[in-house]
Amino acid sequence: MRSALWLLFALGIAVNVWSTTFADLGTGAEIAAKVASGVLVLGSGTGLWLTRPNRHTA
Hints:
Blueprint (H helix, E strand, L loop, with lengths): L1 H20 L5 H24 L8
Helix pairs in contact: 1-2
């Protein structure tokens, strides 16, 4: 589960970098790519945070 979340997190960052740097997209497509990659990064980051190992050993 966590490996899939890490993969999605990295994919979201890669899409954001690609859409900002290399892609020759129109304004609407660039905004859509950035929103989609942002949702992907935020969602997978939240999933990683919620599934982090419990560090409280009492």
